Amino acid sequence: MKKLLLALAVIATFFSQAALATQTIKANVNGMVCAFCAQGIEKKMRALSQTKDVYVNLKQRIVAVELKDGQSLSNDTVKDLIKDAGYEVTSIEISSHPIEHIKAEMEPK
């Protein structure tokens, strides 16, 4: 019985941590050519109540939006905001890494 309770406690801890894991939406964007472009997208993304942090890499054409704990944001919402700003989203992916990790990946080695 003790082993069962211990196993259940471990499983519950794992799932509660997974539920609180960082969620970052990373979009590849065409059309960003200057700092003004990047600032416009960043401003729109930061205005969302679900947003914890935003990272825009002009050279790599990446927009990453880290969500606050427990918040969600649809890919379509991200695509629509970027499209409304005048740019095209070519792909979108969900990452469990925070913005700082994504920034580190983008820096030249």
From TrEMBL:
Residues 23-90 form the HMA domain. PROSITE patterns: HMA_2. Keywords: Signal. It holds the Pfam family HMA. InterPro entries: HMA_dom, HMA_dom_sf. Residues 1-21 form the signal peptide. One of its GO terms (molecular function) is metal ion binding. This is Heavy metal transport/detoxification protein. It comes from Methylotenera mobilis (strain JLW8 / ATCC BAA-1282 / DSM 17540).
